[in-house]
């Protein structure tokens, strides 16, 4: 299957990460254990860091325990990790840990082979590229900076997460991003690529175009993407920027 959006149809492409640009298995098998092993030290040694303190306060609020100590906070984080819960403070603290791991060279991110050539081609054609992931902006920045093919951040214009945009299965989050892109009045100039049907539904409700990316072995592959257009790889998607 080939999806051709044609000249004049789009301004921006917004990318999901897990299951779309990159293997969920890498995140679950490599990044999650890496963060789990370092939560305790982060909470003990960096409690005064504003980002850490804010995340800890959010954890306490979510578990309704305003006096929870570091051990209780760590227990909650690990529980959410086991559930793969998209909790903002979890993603914030993971982002801090992962950013430092990437900077040290402990970690190198994963991208499917078809992704980077497509991103470079779309960027060269003038398409504006953005990311919307449940992982924090800090984690996204580290992820794209530390790819096997070098720093990909210059390809991207904007990074969005559940904190600066909102939950990924709510249409209002996509309206928030469209406004940030200057496309609130023309949301159909935005294309969202994701493997999760609920996210695609929310984006479409906000007026975006959508393509469900279905890669064998990914968690949502068997479920499918409902009535959204679908592609197995980025090679099947042809995008050129609007000249209007």
Question: What's the SSE blueprint?
Answer:
Elements: E1 3-4, E2 12-15, H1 24-36, H2 39-45, H3 50-62, H4 70-83, H5 88-104, H6 115-124, E3 128-132, H7 137-145, E4 158-160, H8 171-180, E5 190-194, H9 197-205, E6 209-213, E7 229-231, E8 237-238
Helix pairs in contact: 1-5, 2-4, 3-5, 5-7, 8-9
Briefly characterize the structure.
42% of the residues lie in helices and 12% in strands. With 244 residues, it is of the alpha/beta class. Strand 5, helix 9 and strand 6 form a beta-alpha-beta unit.
Main sheet summary? 6 strands, parallel
Order of helices and strands: EEHHHHHHEHEHEHEEE
Residue share in helices? Answer: 40-55%
Tell how many strands the DSSP assignment holds. Answer: 8
Describe the structure.
It is a single chain. This protein has 244 residues and is α/β, with parallel strands linked by helices. Helix content is 42%, strand content 12%. It contains nine helices and eight strands. It has helices at 24-36, 39-45, 50-62, 70-83, 88-104, 115-124, 137-145, 171-180, 197-205, and strands at residues 3-4, 12-15, 128-132, 158-160, 190-194, 209-213, 229-231, 237-238. The strands form two sheets. A six-stranded parallel β-sheet has the order 4-3-2-5-6-7, sandwiched between helices. The two termini are 28 Å apart. The model has no long low-confidence stretch (mean pLDDT 93).
Name some characteristics of this structure:
six-stranded parallel sheet, 244 residues, two-stranded parallel sheet, 8 strands, 42% helix
């Amino acid at each position: 299957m080939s999806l051709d959006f044609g000249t004049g149809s789009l301004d921006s492409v917004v990318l999901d990460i897990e299951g779309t640009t990159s293997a969920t298995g890498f995140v679950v098998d490599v990044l999650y254990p890496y963060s789990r092993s370092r939560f305790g030290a982060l909470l003990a040694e960096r409690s005064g860091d504003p980002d850490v303190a804010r995340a800890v306060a959010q954890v306490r609020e979510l578990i309704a325990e305003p006096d929870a100590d570091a051990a209780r906070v760590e227990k909650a984080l690990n529980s959410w990790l086991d559930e793969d819960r998209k909790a903002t403070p979890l993603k914030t603290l993971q982002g801090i840990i992962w950013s430092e791991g990437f900077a040290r060279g402990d970690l190198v991110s994963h991208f499917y082979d078809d992704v980077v050539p497509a991103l470079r081609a779309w960027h060269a054609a003038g398409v504006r590229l953005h990311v919307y992931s449940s992982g924090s902006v800090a984690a996204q920045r580290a992820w794209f900076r530390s790819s096997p093919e070098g720093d990909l951040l210059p390809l991207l214009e904007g990074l969005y997460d559940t904190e600066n945009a909102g939950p990924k299965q709510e249409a209002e989050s996509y309206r928030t991003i469209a406004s940030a892109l200057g496309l609130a009045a023309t949301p159909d100039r935005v294309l969202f690529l994701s493997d999760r049907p609920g996210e695609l539904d929310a984006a479409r409700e906000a007026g975006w175009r959508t393509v469900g990316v279905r890669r064998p072995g990914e968690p949502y592959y068997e479920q499918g993407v409902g009535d959204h257009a679908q592609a197995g790889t980025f090679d099947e998607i042809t995008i050129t920027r609007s000249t209007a």
